[in-house]
Amino acid sequence: MAIQRLHTETRYSEAVIHNGTVYLSGQLADDLSGDVVQQTRDTLAAIDRLLAEAGSDKRQLLSATLYLQDIDRDYAGMNEVWDAWLAPGTAPARTTVQAQLYSPDVRVEITLVAAQL
Which of 1, 23, 25, 92 stands 20 to 30 A from 48 (CA)? Predict the structure, then answer.
Protein backbone atom coordinates (compact mmCIF):
# COMPACT_ATOMS: atom_id res chain seq x y z
CA MET A 1 0.00 0.00 0.00
CA ALA A 2 1.28 3.46 -0.91
CA ILE A 3 2.28 6.06 1.66
CA GLN A 4 0.47 9.39 1.34
CA ARG A 5 1.98 12.56 2.81
CA LEU A 6 0.08 15.81 3.40
CA HIS A 7 1.65 19.26 3.68
CA THR A 8 5.23 18.06 3.33
CA GLU A 9 8.06 20.41 4.28
CA THR A 10 11.80 19.82 4.10
CA ARG A 11 11.93 18.10 7.51
CA TYR A 12 8.45 16.69 8.06
CA SER A 13 4.93 16.12 6.80
CA GLU A 14 1.93 17.39 8.75
CA ALA A 15 0.25 14.01 8.21
CA VAL A 16 1.31 10.62 6.87
CA ILE A 17 -1.29 8.04 5.90
CA HIS A 18 -0.43 4.38 5.52
CA ASN A 19 -2.50 1.22 5.58
CA GLY A 20 -5.58 2.97 7.03
CA THR A 21 -3.69 4.77 9.79
CA VAL A 22 -3.15 8.54 10.02
CA TYR A 23 -0.05 9.85 11.81
CA LEU A 24 -0.03 13.57 12.64
CA SER A 25 3.12 15.51 13.37
CA GLY A 26 3.19 17.79 16.41
CA GLN A 27 0.41 20.35 16.05
CA LEU A 28 0.46 23.85 17.55
CA ALA A 29 -1.84 26.81 17.82
CA ASP A 30 -1.53 29.40 15.05
CA ASP A 31 -1.68 32.18 17.64
CA LEU A 32 0.90 31.65 20.37
CA SER A 33 0.00 34.76 22.36
CA GLY A 34 -2.72 33.13 24.47
CA ASP A 35 -2.79 30.94 27.52
CA VAL A 36 -2.89 27.14 27.42
CA VAL A 37 -6.70 27.09 27.13
CA GLN A 38 -6.65 29.24 23.98
CA GLN A 39 -3.65 27.40 22.54
CA THR A 40 -5.23 23.99 23.20
CA ARG A 41 -8.49 25.09 21.52
CA ASP A 42 -6.59 26.38 18.48
CA THR A 43 -4.44 23.26 18.31
CA LEU A 44 -7.45 20.94 18.46
CA ALA A 45 -9.22 22.97 15.75
CA ALA A 46 -6.13 22.51 13.54
CA ILE A 47 -6.17 18.79 14.33
CA ASP A 48 -9.86 18.56 13.37
CA ARG A 49 -9.09 20.13 9.98
CA LEU A 50 -6.06 17.93 9.33
CA LEU A 51 -7.85 14.74 10.36
CA ALA A 52 -10.74 15.59 8.04
CA GLU A 53 -8.32 16.15 5.18
CA ALA A 54 -6.73 12.77 5.94
CA GLY A 55 -10.11 10.99 5.96
CA SER A 56 -10.50 10.63 9.71
CA ASP A 57 -11.87 12.46 12.74
CA LYS A 58 -11.45 12.68 16.50
CA ARG A 59 -13.70 9.64 17.06
CA GLN A 60 -11.00 7.51 15.39
CA LEU A 61 -8.10 8.44 17.71
CA LEU A 62 -5.78 5.60 18.66
CA SER A 63 -2.96 7.37 20.47
CA ALA A 64 -2.09 10.89 21.61
CA THR A 65 1.01 12.50 23.08
CA LEU A 66 0.57 15.92 24.63
CA TYR A 67 3.59 18.07 25.40
CA LEU A 68 3.23 20.89 27.91
CA GLN A 69 5.82 23.58 28.54
CA ASP A 70 4.87 23.70 32.23
CA ILE A 71 2.82 20.73 33.40
CA ASP A 72 2.16 22.19 36.87
CA ARG A 73 0.78 25.44 35.44
CA ASP A 74 -1.06 24.11 32.39
CA TYR A 75 -2.25 20.53 32.97
CA ALA A 76 -5.70 21.42 34.34
CA GLY A 77 -6.42 24.06 31.68
CA MET A 78 -5.33 21.78 28.84
CA ASN A 79 -7.43 18.90 30.22
CA GLU A 80 -10.51 21.14 30.49
CA VAL A 81 -10.37 21.81 26.74
CA TRP A 82 -9.25 18.27 25.82
CA ASP A 83 -12.10 16.65 27.80
CA ALA A 84 -14.71 18.91 26.17
CA TRP A 85 -13.28 18.17 22.70
CA LEU A 86 -13.22 14.37 22.93
CA ALA A 87 -16.29 12.50 21.77
CA PRO A 88 -17.69 10.44 24.67
CA GLY A 89 -16.29 6.91 24.80
CA THR A 90 -13.47 7.59 22.31
CA ALA A 91 -10.51 8.45 24.55
CA PRO A 92 -7.25 7.30 22.95
CA ALA A 93 -4.22 5.84 24.66
CA ARG A 94 -2.56 9.04 25.93
CA THR A 95 0.68 10.31 27.36
CA THR A 96 1.22 13.83 28.71
CA VAL A 97 4.73 15.08 29.40
CA GLN A 98 6.50 18.30 30.25
CA ALA A 99 8.93 19.30 27.52
CA GLN A 100 11.10 22.18 26.49
CA LEU A 101 9.32 23.18 23.29
CA TYR A 102 10.88 24.97 20.33
CA SER A 103 9.74 28.43 21.48
CA PRO A 104 8.93 29.86 24.91
CA ASP A 105 5.58 31.02 23.51
CA VAL A 106 4.43 27.44 22.80
CA ARG A 107 2.44 26.14 25.78
CA VAL A 108 1.12 22.90 24.21
CA GLU A 109 1.97 20.62 21.28
CA ILE A 110 -0.05 17.52 20.38
CA THR A 111 0.77 14.51 18.21
CA LEU A 112 -1.86 11.94 17.27
CA VAL A 113 -2.37 8.63 15.56
CA ALA A 114 -5.85 7.86 14.21
CA ALA A 115 -7.59 5.27 12.08
CA GLN A 116 -9.09 6.36 8.77
CA LEU A 117 -12.88 6.22 8.46
Answer: 1
